TrEMBL record:
Belongs to the glycosyltransferase 48 family. It catalyses: [(1->3)-beta-D-glucosyl](n) + UDP-alpha-D-glucose = [(1->3)-beta-D-glucosyl](n+1) + UDP + H(+). It is an enzyme of class 2 (transferase). This is 1,3-beta-glucan synthase. GO terms for cellular component: 1,3-beta-D-glucan synthase complex; plasma membrane.
């Protein structure tokens, strides 16, 4: 390699790389994911910027960077060796980015060769390397080995790795120079051995040295688990396997089944920790037990295998868990079974989403395991049984996981081509449910490649897939299709999933209409005739049952191949049964009726008269209802139903078969009797109220008008009537009843909102929410806070007298009790002060507030009294001094004050006691102490006699106080030079006391105290005698400087505060967030929560955060970068959080921003400060790492010696000093808590030099226990390429699931701070097959630990005080919450922290807050239908890892992935609870566009949920009332929202029909036709939803509960003033559009909303793109309807009713059209308007094409908008055309209302109008073609042609006005008639795009569409431009948008423009 002469690198192996790799330009360029610039190595991070195919050289480059500072030549040689190795790995530079990388590295080597050669010390490179290697070995390895403390294992591990790389380089250098390396070789062999042992570890260092030395390994529970796994006695090892001495059970499983090494390491640690944590909880004496507890083993085993055993029972198979008869082997066997399951799960990759598929694999592998252990012999070979897939390297991955993975991958590929058609591909659920049938065993073991499961249709395979790889199954026409359920886009799913609810509502409606029609009072039902008619509802029920049966068959058709015969038979029998009842019930009804009419009479004529058998129909009904009666019986006895559903007996299965198909999930979900009673009563009362109101307010008032309408014959019509002789005016009846019926189906949602608000409020009050909501309340309850703290947060393992007594001033009864109480008091101080310190670190409070809020760390033994935080006692002493001084000997006022304010008394007592304490501590002279004692005795006697004020001269007390304060200042400094001042101050104080205050009481003391001054004139006393007699004159009489302990300093500081703080601390803390948090924490201590166990006994848990590409940490550049208004993020944050900015500057000791920029450290602090206020990963990680900090402290308090507690040691001290206690506490915290951030693209980001990767690494370095999991995409040489020895080796992509941690370095270590791999588990392929977030969670879940798993999103944060309650929360898993089952998901409330940004953010925050508090409170209890909503819920980890994980990942259908985890948990007999004593912060979207994107995403998700199997199963498996809860709290809310909008449409189209047909006018003449009231009620209900009252009710209740009802009312009024109703009406349109669109055509997709600060102006074109289809088109349609109604309507002209009925509709129109501009910052600024118009014009006129994005061209956007139509199939196309037909009604109706057509109603008029339309379109087409063909060559002719067309058009208009008298109104009406027609034609054309394109008209359609868009744009733009002329409009908008911020002193006007002007002014001044 390199020689002593410094051979140039160009002559490296392979003939020199430069010839084959030309050097790029000096600047370099970025090739996709890898950095290839020539500046390689300039940053410390360069060793990571390596192409993925060269990852092997990264460790060498790391070492080069590490040694660069100490020896540049060695660094050069390392890089040279790295270059050579890179060339060997990829000689042809075929890998992505390799050529550029090698060139850049070569350039650097050429640059560094000469300078480093000159600096070389030794004669040759080899000797230089040898010398450096020896030096490194001695300095690092030997020094660390010889150190007494081996705790720093990480340093040693790193040193061994570095030494190994150095030796590798030395060997390469030594090829050409044969120097002696024997000694080094021996050293290297030792290093290699140690390197294998000292691997980077996650939590447990399992090497032999660490097992003895590391704190965590010394815990008995870890030792017990560790040794249990080492028991390999009696296991048959494979013959070719070399058994190690320290081998364990998992290694044996690896050798047998071929698991990956890192998977084994990962699961080894997982299993040890799992067993250890359960073991310690089960042990009564933990420190004495060294053997693993069998009971603990059984607990874990039961949880792990519960689902597997249930699966075996369900399929009628025996479990493979066979235990041996020999007792000694049982534990080993159990551990083997558990280890095998975890190893399968750990390597299963995407198969983890298919829990029963894992059961299948495990079933066979466990059977093989049993066979080998039992010594079974194979009948075919005669040898011992071996695993089917052998134990070769990666055998399990390649032969078991990969074939199944390939099927998932191929089906996922189909989902991309099929887009919206879920029925054409199998998702995760389909593939998993294949294993719910016994047919799955046909798959065999080993699995057959030709099994049904592996068959896929031929047409799906891409050409590259046709070459059938080893594991890629062949295409096959016999695709097995969907399994159990087919997701088909249809609104019918809503009926099918919740058929019982719709049946109930429809039958109730029918019954009410019959009763209202026949009398109108409910009592009429007892009339025999009416009752008989009411019974006809069962005929309707039978019809619906048959409809349901037909629906089932139609919607399940594509799953027929996988259906069992029993299910098919059931569907057929259901249909036949339904058809039979549809015949039987009407026949028996007609047969037994008295006076039949119509169809009944016909039926009766066939069957004869049955009046004598009236009970025949009743009998038929009873038989028909018998299944329902059985269901009702089972409902009353849920235990019985649970037993029947869970039973696997064939008899029971046969009984249950008819009611519902037998499924693996959805069995036994019923709640306990009390829960059942609660939610049943909720719904019974609600439904009763709803039906009563509907009957009296909606239905009954409509009956008489309906009868009147049906009697009035109308013969004259105002249009061409196709059915002039139709009876009963049926069209009018439909138009009248349709909106009422829609409201009837929707208003249950309103009643649900009202009832849930009331119930939620009552529940919240019962849970003691809002008891402490202000600082005043906190003060009043602070006395009881310590007791509550003790009751909940202190482990109670011995009998204590209670915490309050710890603060009691009563004498101690037992010294040992007193000690215990003092210990508790000290613990309270630690926790409280930790919280306050965290507030300071977060800059919520300043230093002064911190001092006022802290409590003493320990109780002062000499004082024996309560010491409250100074903020409670502030200003009390100065007030008391003033009152005493002014008392004049009367103590009435002072006593009154002391009685009314207990803290007043506490302050006085404490100050007096501390005063005594300090005086005694400083004065040591015996005479002086004696005098002082006498003085204090007098005072104590006067206090006891209650005559203190009367007997002492209190007017001089302030003088004494002033002197004492001066003394305290000196004592704080504690400087020996101040002794003289101390002596003088004591003399002064003595004089004040004896001569001014206590002159009368101390007469006998005066003489000795004042020496000779009081003598009579008996001559002059000698000086030395005077000095001897006087007090406080000598230094020896004082102990000064004082020996200052922490407790002493604290005492002096506290006393000084109490004496000097004169202003009241009523507003401490001043920060609103600090107030909220401290109040909530205090309040939560009075709420019901489980007792906290000791940290060592708590349930262990992990936190998992998925991360993709969001902000990690704001860069300095991002903070400074200004938007178009001159506003930077930093400037914005300074204005939003002014107090926190001030506190931050104080904390870092800087005066302004410029000072911050001076040092790198303070600039980093600034970046962090800003990032903690954005929605960044840094904020989330800091919050979650509070868990560890809290656990370390709590563990310290659990284990701390009493003496330490009594001395008042600070939490901060023990957390910073490396003490034995701290080491132990950290070890316990590591056992209990793991935090994994799944940074999906971290590997790619790292290799591309992305700043986010460096920020993530920085987080790992800041928090050493943080772990990052990522999917590493690496290019590797395939095995075939290696085998062929071909120079052009085949490169293939390989994926790994990797876990890394920071490679911790000491501050003086020259190395760089980098990460290091802990585990790398190979994946079968790319993990990202389904939805991104759940796939990201799934790959990382194997690295989590513990029994709880908290899922935290990237926009969440946590608080120190809340993390302290985690022990309590986890205890909820140990108790049953409904008497039936343990919780599987613990719900936690959230605080939305983005509410203060703007009014929109405030609305969103309030809306979200009400959902995450009162909403979920009611869902969890009483309704029992809370699911998982992406909130900080905590999962029972073992329950969910065996049942498919914490989310579902199928593409599109599981778009709202989180809620499916809740569905899955509930269906699998889980239990979801909600707890409100803990809260986690969450950020929300803050701008209208962000909010709309978020709401669109949620609406998309709900649309997909509607189609899902989970909702279908919940709707069918829940009992009736729980099913109602499920519907109205999931998809029902969105469907009701849609019905609200439909109501407006149906009402207006009904009116349009009445108005245009002339029926409205005809009926208006009849006086009896009055039907306003029910319509008003219906539309009022619609308005109730539209204006957001549905949201406002729970919102107001929650604000009222937690902040007071006066606040709630003022907030509500303020929200209305800030146009909250506009916001909610607009949101209504968003939800409706996207929900409906998803059900009709699909197109659902994840939409990134962005989490930035939104104070920027959105351009008009951007708003137009976002809202055109969802709001603008619909708004214009409604506006046209209202205008037509206004012009031609008759009924309500001039009536108040018209205004009332149409007001909400006009409000909706205006809102939908203009809200985006109203809520757009600077939306009415003239300059912005001009810019927007230019931008919009450019966008609308740009041509589209391939690669042109929708935001650049209207054409591209327009094509993308109707793209979902392409995939929606025939059904979607037909439906779209049917819906478009409504736009043709206008033309048909309006052409007959023209002045020129009023005399004829012929159909020819309508036909002529179409001729006009086609003529206009033809002319437009001609002009378009003419422009294209003639405008260049025949320009004049073309102009003349256009002129001629214009003249003809004007002439036609004039002729029409003159001859047939057409009016101006006619022209306007023609526009109203023809414009919708054109739009309708456009919609039809888009639906029929392939046909239109085939005839060549698509260009014309596009041109027409562009014209419409321009008209719409002008319609919207004109009013905005007009308003922008008036400056006050913009000012009003700014005030309205940012009022919330204004009220907190925010100058938004400056933010939106002034900052720029300020800077401009500054620059002008500079000039």
């Amino acid at each position: 390699m390199a020689s002593s002469s410094g051979r140039r690198p160009g002559a490296g192996p392979g003939g020199g790389e430069p010839s084959s790799t030309p050097a790029p330009a000096s600047g370099g360029r970025r090739i996709l994911r890898t950095q290839t610039a020539g500046n390689l190595g300039e940053s410390i991070f360069d060793s990571e910027v390596v192409p993925s195919s060269l990852v092997e050289i990264a460790p060498i480059l790391r070492v080069a960077n590490e040694v660069e500072a100490s020896n540049p030549r060695v660094a050069y040689l390392c890089r040279f060796y790295a270059f050579e190795k890179a060339h060997r790995l990829d000689p042809t530079s075929s890998g992505r980015g390799v050529r550029q990388f090698k060139t850049a590295l070569l350039q650097r080597l050429e640059r560094e060769n000469d300078p480093t050669l000159k600096g070389r010390v030794k004669q040759s490179d080899a000797r230089e390397m040898q010398s450096f290697y020896q030096h490194y070995y001695k300095k690092y390895i030997q020094a660390l080995q010889n150190a007494a403390d081996k705790a720093d294992r990480a340093q040693l591990t790193k040193a061994y790795q570095t030494a190994a790389v150095l030796f590798e380089v030395l060997k390469a250098v030594n090829v050409s120079q044969k120097i002696e390396v024997d000694q080094i070789l021996e050293t290297h062999n030792q290093v290699e051995e140690k390197k294998k042992l000292y691997l980077p570890y996650n939590i447990l260092p399992l090497d032999p040295d660490s097992a003895a030395n590391q704190a965590i390994m010394r815990y008995p529970e870890i030792q017990a688990s560790f040794h249990a796994l080492r028991n390999t006695r009696g296991l048959p090892w494979p013959k070719d396997h070399e058994k190690k001495d320290d081998a364990d059970l998992l290694e044996w499983l690896q050798a047998l089944f071929g698991f990956q090494k890192d998977n084994v390491s990962n699961q080894r640690e997982h299993l040890i920790l799992l067993l250890a944590n359960v073991h310690i909880r089960e042990m009564s004496k933990p420190d004495q037990q060294s053997k693993l507890d069998d009971h603990a083993l059984d607990i874990v085993m039961k949880k792990l295998f519960k689902n597997y055993k249930r699966w075996c029972k369900y399929l009628g198979r025996k479990s493979s868990l066979w235990l041996p008869t020999i007792q000694q082997e049982v534990q080993q066997r159990k551990l083997l079974y558990m280890g095998l399951y975890l190893l399968i799960w750990g390597e299963a990759a995407n198969l983890r989403f298919m829990p029963e598929c894992l059961c299948y694999i495990y079933h066979h592998m466990a059977f093989e395991l049993y066979g080998m252990l039992a010594g079974n012999v194979s009948p075919t070979t005669g040898e011992n049984v071996k695993p089917a897939y052998g134990g070769a390297e990666e055998a399990f991955l390649k032969k078991v996981v990969t074939p199944i993975y390939k099927i998932i991958e191929m089906e996922a590929e189909r989902s991309k081509t099929m887009k919206s058609k879920h029925s054409h591909w199998r998702n995760y659920d389909d593939l998993n449910e294949y294993f719910w049938s016994r047919d799955c065993f046909r798959l065999g073991w080993p699995m057959r490649a030709d099994a049904d499961f592996f068959k896929t249709p031929n047409f799906v395979l891409n050409p590259r897939d046709q070459t059938n790889g080893e594991h890629r199954p062949a295409g096959n026409d016999h695709w097995m299709g969907k399994v159990n359920f087919v997701e088909i886009r249809s609104f019918w799913h809503i009926f099918r999933s919740f058929d019982r609810m719709w049946s109930f509502l429809i039958l109730s409606l029918q019954a009410m209409v019959i009763v209202a029609w026949n009398g109108g009072t409910p009592g009429d039902i007892f009339d025999a005739g009416v009752f008989k008619q009411v019974l006809s509802i069962f005929i309707t029920a039978a019809v619906m049952k048959m409809g349901q049966a037909i629906l089932d068959i139609v919607l399940s058709w594509k799953a027929r191949r996988s259906m069992s015969l029993a299910v098919k038979l059931r569907y057929i029998l259901k249909l036949l049964s339904g058809a039979a009842w549809v015949v039987i019930l009407p026949v028996t009804y007609a047969y037994t009726s008295d006076n039949p009419t119509g169809l009944n009479r016909t039926i009766k004529s066939w069957f004869g008269d049955g009046r004598n058998q009236p009970s025949l129909y009743i009998l038929a009904v009873v038989i028909y209802l018998s299944p329902n009666m059985l269901a009702a019986t089972l409902f009353i006895f849920p235990v019985l139903r649970r037993f029947l559903e869970k039973s696997n007996l064939k008899v029971v299965a046969l009984i249950m078969w008819w009611s519902q198909p037998r499924l693996f999930v959805g069995r036994g979900m019923h709640e306990g009797a009390f829960s059942l009673f609660k939610y049943t009563m909720f719904w019974v009362v609600l439904l009763a109220t709803k039906l009563v109101v509907s009957f009296y307010v909606e239905i009954r008032p409509l009956v008489q008008p309906t009868k009147d309408i049906m009697k009035v014959p109308i013969t004259t019509f105002q249009w061409h009537e196709f059915f002039p002789h139709a009876k009963n005016n049926i069209g009018v009846v439909i138009a009248l009843w349709a909106p009422i019926i829609l409201v009837y189906f929707m208003d249950t949602q309103i009643w649900y909102a009202i009832f849930s608000t009331l119930v939620g409020g009552i529940y919240g009050a019962c849970r003691r929410l809002g008891e402490i909501r202000t600082l005043g309340m906190l003060r009043s309850r602070f006395e009881s806070l310590p007791k509550a703290f003790n009751d909940h947060l202190i482990p109670n393992d011995s009998k204590r007298r209670g915490f309050r007594s710890a603060f009691s001033s009563k004498p101690y009864k037992k010294p040992e009790d007193g000690k215990e109480e003092d210990k508790i008091a000290a613990r309270f101080a630690q926790i409280w002060n930790l919280i306050i310190t965290s507030f300071r670190q977060e800059d919520l409070i300043d230093n002064r507030e911190k001092d006022l809020l802290l409590v003493p760390y320990c109780k002062d033994r000499e004082m024996d009294m309560i010491q409250w935080p100074p903020f409670l006692l502030a200003s009390k002493i100065p007030i008391a001094l003033d009152m005493a001084a002014d008392s004049g000997g009367k103590d009435r006022d002072l006593k009154k004050r002391m009685n009314s304010d207990p803290y007043f008394t506490y302050a006085i007592k404490e100050c007096y006691a501390s005063f005594k304490n300090v005086i005694y501590a400083v004065v040591v002279g015996p005479r002086e102490r004696d005098v002082i004692q006498k003085i204090f005795k007098v005072v104590d006697d006067l206090v006891a006699a209650d005559t203190l004020i009367k007997d002492l001269h209190m007017s001089n007390l302030p003088t004494l106080s002033k002197k004492f304060i001066e003394l305290l200042v000196i004592l704080q400094k504690n400087n020996k030079d101040d002794l003289g001042q101390v002596i003088i101050l004591f003399q002064d104080m003595l004089e004040v006391v004896t001569r001014d205050i206590m002159e009368d009481q101390l007469t006998e003391l005066l003489e000795p105290v004042h020496g000779g001054n009081n003598r009579k004139h008996e001559g002059i006393t000698p000086l030395d005698q005077q000095e001897q007699e006087q007090l406080f004159t000598k230094a020896v009489e004082f102990e000064f400087p004082v020996k200052a302990s922490d407790a002493w300093k604290e005492k002096i500081k506290r006393l000084h505060l109490l004496l000097t703080v004169k202003e009241s601390a009523m507003d401490v803390p001043t920060n609103l967030d600090a107030r909220r948090r401290i109040s909530f924490f205090a309040n939560s201590l009075f709420m019901d929560m489980p007792k906290a166990p000791k940290v060592r006994n708590m349930l262990p848990f992990s936190v998992l955060t998925p991360y993709y590409k969001e902000d990690v940490l704001f860069s300095s550049q991002a903070l400074e970068e200004e938007n178009e208004d001159g506003v930077s993020i930093l400037f914005y944050l300074q204005k939003i959080y002014p107090d926190e900015w001030k506190n931050f500057l104080e904390r870092v000791d800087c005066k302004n921003e410029e000072e911050l920029r001076e040092t790198e450290q303070t600039e980093d602090e600034l970046r962090l400060w800003a990032s903690y206020r954005g929605q960044t990963l840094t904020r989330t990680v800091r919050g979650m790492m509070y868990y560890r900090q809290a656990l370390v402290l709590q563990s310290c308090l659990d284990m701390a010696p009493e003496n330490d507690l009594m001395e008042g040691f600070r939490a901060a001290d023990i957390l910073s000093e490396e003490s034995h206690l701290l080491t132990q506490s950290k070890a316990v915290a590591d056992m209990k808590f793991t935090y994994v951030v799944s940074c999906q693209s971290y590997g790619i980001q790292k290799r591309s030099g992305d700043a986010r990767a460096q920020d993530i690494l920085r987080l790992m370095t800041t928090y050493p226990s943080l772990r990052v999991a990522y999917i590493d995409e690496v290019e590797e040489t395939s095995k075939e390429g290696e085998a062929s020895k071909d120079r052009s080796k085949k490169i293939e992509k390989v994926y790994y699931s990797a876990l890394v941690k920071a490679a911790v370095t000491k501050p003086d270590d020259p190395g760089q701070k980098l990460d290091q791999d802990i585990y790398r588990i190979k994946l079968p392929g790319n993990a990202m097959l389904g939805e991104g977030k759940p796939e990201n969670q799934n790959h990382a879940i194997i690295f989590t630990r513990g029994e709880g798993l908290q899922t935290i999103d990237m926009n969440q944060e946590h608080y120190m005080e809340e993390t302290l309650k985690m022990r309590n929360l986890l205890q909820e898993f140990t108790k049953k919450h409904d008497g039936v089952r343990y919780p599987t998901i613990l719900g936690v409330r959230e605080h939305i922290f983005t509410g203060s940004v703007s009014s929109l953010a405030w609305f969103m925050s309030n809306q979200e807050t009400s959902f995450v508090t009162i909403g979920q409170r009611v869902l969890a209890n009483p309704l029992r239908v809370r699911f998982h909503y992406g909130h900080p819920d905590i999962f029972d980890r073992l329950f969910h890892l065996t049942r498919g994980g914490v989310s579902k990942a199928s593409k599109i259908i599981n778009l709202s992935e989180d809620i499916f985890a809740g569905f899955n948990s509930t269906l699998r007999e889980g239990n979801v609870t909600h707890h409100e004593y803990m809260q986690v912060g969450k950020g929300r979207d803050v701008g209208l566009n962000q909010i709309s994107l978020f709401e669109a995403k949620i609406a998309y998700g709900n649309g997909e949920q509607t189609l899902s199997r989970d909702i279908y199963r919940l709707g069918h498996r829940f009992d009736f009332f729980r099913m109602l809860s499920c519907y109205y709290t999931t998809i029902g809310f969105y469907f009701s929202t849609m019905i609200t909008v439909w109501t407006v449409y149906v009402f207006l189209y009904g009116r349009l029909y009445l108005v245009l047909s002339g029926l409205d006018e005809g009926l208006a003449t009849g006086r009896r036709f009055i039907h306003n009231d029910p319509l008003q009620v219906a539309l009022a209900s619609q308005s109730f939803v539209q204006l957001g009252f549905l949201m406002a009710l729970p919102m107001m209740m929650e604000i009222g509960l937690e902040r007071g009802f006066r606040t709630a009312l003022s907030d509500f009024v303020l929200m209305q003033l800030q146009l909250a109703s506009v916001f909610f009406t607009f949101s209504l349109g968003t939800k409706t559009h996207y929900y409906g669109k998803t059900l009709l055509h699909g197109g659902a997709e994840y939409r990134a909303t962005g989490r930035g600060f939104v104070v920027f102006h959105a351009k008009f074109a951007e708003n137009y793109r976002l809202y055109s289809r969802s709001h603008f088109v619909k708004g214009i349609e409604l506006m046209i309807l209202l205008i037509v109604f206004e012009i031609f309507g008759q009924s309500y002209r001039g009536a108040i009713a018209y205004i009332f009925i149409t007001f909400s509709m006009w409000f909706m129109v205006v809102t939908w059209l203009f809200a985006p501009f109203l809520f757009n910052p600077s939306g009415f600024e003239w300059q912005k308007i001009v810019d927007d118009w230019t931008d919009w014009n450019k966008w609308i006129s740009n041509r589209g094409g391939i690669g042109v994005s929708p935001d650049k061209s209207w054409e591209s956007w327009w094509e993308k908008e109707h793209e979902p139509l392409k995939y929606s199939g025939k059904r979607g196309t037909v439906l779209e055309i049917v819906l478009a037909v409504r736009f043709f009604i206008y033309q048909y109706g309006l052409v007959y209302h023209l002045n020129i057509t009023k005399h004829t109603k012929s159909v020819l008029v309508y036909c002529l109008s179409w001729v006009v339309i086609f003529f206009i379109l033809l002319v437009m087409k001609a002009v378009s073609v003419g422009r294209r063909k003639f405008s260049a060559e025949f320009q004049l002719v073309f102009r003349l042609l256009k002129g001629l067309i214009f003249i003809v058009f004007i002439s036609t208009i004039v002729i029409l006005i003159v001859i047939p008298h057409m009016t101006i109104q006619d022209i306007f009406v023609c526009i109203l008639a023809f414009m919708p027609t054109g739009w309708g034609l456009l919609l039809v054309a888009q639906a029929l795009k392939p046909a239109i394109m085939s005839v060549g008209l698509w260009g014309s359609i596009r041109a027409l569409a562009r014209g419409y868009e321009i008209i719409m744009g002008l319609l919207l733009f004109t009013p905005i431009a007009f308003l922008a002329w008036f400056p006050f409009v913009s000012e009003f908008q700014t005030r309205m948008l940012f009022n919330q911020a204004f009220s907190r002193g925010l100058q938004i006007s400056r933010i939106l423009g002034g900052h720029k002007k300020d800077r401009a002014a500054l620059s002008k001044d500079d000039r």
